[in-house]
Each structure stands twice: as C-alpha cells, then as structure tokens.
Amino acid sequence: MSHPAAPPDDSSQRMQRLSEAAREVLRLAAARGASQADVILNDDTGLSVNVRMGEVETVERNRDRGVAVTVYFGQKKGNASTGDLQAGSLAATVEQACAIARHTEPDPCNGLADAARMATQARDFDSWHPWPLDADAAIALALEAEAAGRATDARISNSDGASVHTGDSVSVYANSHGFLGAERGTSQSISVSMIAGRGDGMQRDYWYTSAVSPDDLESPAKVGRKAAERALARLGPKPIRTGEYPVLFAPEVARSLIGHLLQAASGGVLYRRASFLVDHAGKRILPDWFQLAERPHLPRGLRSSDFDHEGVATVDSDLVRDGVLLRYLLSSYSARRLGLESTGNAGGVHNLEVATNAAGLHEMVRGMGTGLVVTEMMGQGANLLTGDYSRGAAGFWVEKGHIVHPVDGLTIAGHLPAMYQAIEAVGADIDVRSHIAMGSLLVGRMMVAGEAGAA
Questions:
Q1: Is the pLDDT of residue 451 over 80?
Q2: Cα 2 to chain center, whole Å?
Q3: Angle between helices 11-31 and 87-102 (to 10 degrees)
Q4: Is the pLDDT of residue 1 over 80?
Q5: CATH top-level class for 11-232?
C-alpha cells in the first residue's frame, strides 16, 4: 500500500510533557509525606472508520490522556487517577491518593519494586510508525476491503462491514527511586466481516490484519477476499457424533490455550491459591519437546519494552523449557506474597514465542486421520482453579486426513492439565498478529459434543 507523507513527528514533545508532569506528581507526593510513589501517564491518539454495504457508518477520532498515581505511606497504599494534565488536577489527584492511603490498612507486601531491579537501558524497538491517514483515505481503504470481499463470489450475500484503525501511544512511568522511562508505539489494523448464503443457511466469518507499521499489513483487498473465503467455507455445516477425537486448533484460536496457561501462572491467582498451577514451578506440565519463551526486546514486537509497569528491567527468559514450567509471572507485590522475586511481568507478559515441531495446518490435517479442526471458539469456559475446560466451537471435520465438511454448534471439553500434556504438535504456520506468536496446535484427544444421532 502507498502512504501519504507523514506529518511532523511530535512524539518527543509529548513524551517531554508527560515526563515533566511525572516529576511534578512525584514532587507533590513527597511534599505531602509519602514515603514512596509512582505514576503512569499516557497520551493516545487514534482514527477509526467503519463502513458497511458501501456506506460510511462511523468515523471516530480520539485523543485520550491519563494519569494514574500510587502513593505509599509506609505500607499503606492509595491510588487516584485523572485525565487532565493541568497543574491543579495533578495536585488534586495526588491529594486524593494520599487521603486514601492514610485510611487504608497496612499491607507488608506493599511498596515499589526493588530499586536495584530498575531498567537502565532505553532501546529503540522500531515501534513508531505513524500512518498518516485522514478520514477520507481511511474510508477508501475500508471500502476497498469490503468491496473485494463482496466481489469474491455470488454466494456472498451480505456484509457485516469493514474497519480501518490507526493509533499511537506515548507513555511515561516514573517512581520515587528516581526511575523515569518513556515509550512510544503505533498500532494499525484492517478488518472485514462477510456473510455467505441466505436464510437459515447463512454463515459469517471475518479476517483482519494488524501490525506496528502499515508496511506490514496485508492489502485491503486480500483481507476482504480472505474474510469472504472463510465465510464461504463454512456453508453447509453437517452434524458429527459425540465422541473423543484429536482436535487441531488453528493459529488464531490456538493462542487462547496459551493464554489460559499464562493466567494460571500469574501471581494474583497463585497467591490466592486459585490456580491449577499452584506449586508447579519446576514441574513438567507440557510434553518434553515444548518450549515457550518471553522475548521482550524484539524489533517491532507488539509488546516490546525495556521495563514492566513497575520499572523492572525486562530480560529474555524461558517460561517453559522441555515441558517444565520454569517460573511464574510476577509483579513485585505478588512476588512478595509468594516469597519470591518479581519476574518483570507487572502489567503482563511481553512477546511470547512458542517453538514449533511440525509444518502448517494443512500438513497437520493430513497426519491427524479423523478429527476436528477448530477455527472459532465461543464462551469463556476455562476454570483456572480446577482446570476444567468447556467452550463452544466451530470449524471443519476431518476424515482420512482430509477436510470433508464444516461443523458448528459443537462443544469441546477437557481438563487443562491433561490437555497440555496431550499436545502432540505446534505448527510452523505462525500467526504474528498477537504478542503470543504461534502456529496451529494439535491436542491428541478431547471430548467433542456433537449430535448423538449423527451419521
């Protein structure tokens, strides 16, 4: 795609203003007697357009600013926030946080992360690629994407629309250790949703492309055609018998299984003993070939950063090696609750890479015999305490290594610890549209609830 000339880059000025406001917040907190304090400030802008059936539905521009202040009086903690960077609002917000802290109970685990853990590097991760779109240009791209989808096949009967989004974010984190870190990043996306068929036989599906840089996006026409092809492939679903089968998760849904693992390995649920991974650090929870690594310093990574939300330096680190869970995902507070050290994951994980041991989805289908390919899941049926798993699903039925027809209205169920142990393959068809970069994932056996009377 060609792009118009970019306007002047004002990100440095925006970071400077946020940095000045951060220093003022910390000065005010110290003046009011806080023993420690930190502040997160952000300045976000964006443009989003939506079209449907060749007509513009919405055009939205946003400019959002935020300041979140935390103060400590010993082991007492208070929080307050505002969307106004003016001096009077900053002072009032600090005063509110101090008032809250004075009336809370002390918690021995409260406090900033250790000063010795603060990041000392400020690298450029190539994360700043503004897309100089005006509303007319964004609308034209969305219309192009939708038109390509509608023109793919006569069986495309309707559209749920197309959207284009571009945004940027500038943020600063600072604390009373003397740490101040500034970051900037951009995000771009194009998405399309198509409807195939008519009446009771209609099927809907979508596709999207997203990246830090517009140069890394798929073309609008390609996105539209892929959305249409996916909707067409779902026409004429047939029922299947309930039973236990191999289940192959396409890349765009496979990462949700890793997401459940990350949630279960997070400090908040662990110190509450509400996770099936309590006391599992150092134990094998996945097949002995399985590798999962955190890579926070990738160029153009969707979550690349030198520091976490507490200023703790990020490092390349394995989370799972040879199937063994090496560590948890901890902030300084959750680490203290568990008697451990922060892992630099306050605010969540950074870029994750799941190692592959197989080819792509089509090759994996040929090797699975009879089973289910899942391309869509519905519901939130994962219990982190018990590990019980049950979600609605749709996709394709496989016989003798070939996709034979689409299926929908299914339920797939299992027990997450057993499902992780039963993973047989991770494909090389890696989906890079998420901070969890991984390919298709094959679980050797799961319960699939279809129709008991199906042929």
A1: no
A2: 28
A3: 40
A4: no
A5: alpha beta
